[in-house]
From TrEMBL:
Protein's name according to its UniProt entry: PH domain-containing protein
Spans traversing the lipid bilayer: 12-29, 35-57
Gene source species: Chitinophaga pinensis
Lineage, opening ranks: Bacteria, Pseudomonadati, Bacteroidota, Chitinophagia, Chitinophagales
Keyword set, alphabetical order: Membrane, Transmembrane, Transmembrane helix
């Protein structure tokens, strides 16, 4: 089972390049229109520096989370026997837009994936069901 999209290095380097270009243009052309572009790009870079999970793959008794922070791509792999998944809602609202998938290793939450990262509550529920089916079938 796979959720999400592919990670794109080009997309992240374009964001960084836009930020650098806007800073250089601002330094050389002290025009107020470049100031707006600079602020917009810096805000875009700050927003993209948050951890984003691009893909969640569940296969071969492994859960693989592919994510990125700005331009650094990271892939984390967990054995399904070592972890467990839980769906919670931020603020105890119970609304689909506030769903968060927690990945626990022992008692410690090692990863959180928010619905806001491009997923749906239904996809999380299906993933959890497939996860526990895989976990119980591989334990036997």
């Amino acid at each position: 089972m796979k959720l999400g999209t592919e990670y794109s290095v080009v997309k992240h380097w374009l964001k960084v390049g836009m930020g650098v270009a806007s800073i250089v243009m601002y330094i050389y052309f002290r025009d107020s229109s470049w100031l707006f572009f600079l602020l917009f790009t810096l805000l875009l870079m700050i927003a993209s520096s948050q951890q984003k999970t691009y893909a969640i793959v569940l296969e071969n008794n492994m859960l693989m989370l592919t994510g990125a922070r700005l331009v650094v791509r990271n892939v984390v792999t967990y054995n399904v026997q070592d972890i467990w998944l839980e769906l919670i809602y931020s603020g105890s609202t119970g609304k689909a837009k506030d769903a968060i998938l927690n990945v626990f290793e022992g008692k410690k939450c090692v990863r959180q994936v928010h619905v806001k990262e491009g997923y749906t509550e239904e996809e999380f529920k299906n993933l959890i069901t497939a996860f526990y089916v895989m976990k119980t079938s591989s334990a036997a």
